[in-house]
Write a structure and sequence with these properties.
The protein is α/β, with parallel strands linked by helices. It has one domain: 3-Layer(aba) Sandwich (Mannitol-specific EII, Chain A). Helices cover 36% and strands 22% of the residues. The chain is built from 5 helices and 5 strands. The chain has a 5-stranded mixed beta sheet, with helices on both faces. β2 and β3 form a beta hairpin. α1 packs antiparallel against α2. 40% of the residues are buried.
């Protein structure tokens, strides 16, 4: 699987979030709006972080939120949320977060491949700040494809 398509509904720019839970819920709402998940998926992503800690903060300023495949996943999906103000997730090195990616996968097998595809978009260290400052949805799509 390559990166899932990113419909406009899956991209939220300069969202307001009072804390990390709210930031994850904004990303979950974007997955719902794009038709990838039901509303229960956002709660499942929050539970994963509550249970396992801020391991989802995979790089400075970047979260890759996800939960296990299940009834709340309708199809593979990706949501991108940039935050108006950074929020801490409790990670000792990579806080605060400005970009929240939310991934939904139908099968466990697609999970690792999807994460690898997403990680490739961030091989360039300038990609995260560029994404955080993206002016529009087309710029977000370009950056995730690795285009300048």
């Amino acid at each position: 699987m390559s990166l899932p398509e990113l419909p406009d509904e899956a991209i939220v720019l300069r969202a307001e979030a009072v804390d990390w839970r709210a930031a994850v819920h904004v990303a979950g709402e974007a997955l719902v709006a794009s038709g990838a998940t039901t509303s229960d998926y956002a709660d499942a992503m929050v539970r994963m972080i509550d249970e396992h800690g801020p391991y989802v903060v995979i790089a400075p300023g970047l979260v890759l939120a996800h939960a296990r495949p299940g009834d709340s996943v309708l199809r593979d999906g990706l949501a991108v949320v940039t935050l108006a103000e950074p929020v801490p997730f409790g990670h000792p090195h990579n806080d605060p977060v400005r970009v929240v990616l939310a991934l939904s996968v139908v099968s466990v097998g697609g999970h690792l491949e999807s994460i690898a595809d997403i990680a490739n978009a961030f091989n360039d260290v300038s990609a995260i700040p560029a994404l955080a400052d993206a002016a529009d949805r087309d710029e977000v799509r370009r950056l995730l494809r690795g285009a300048p």
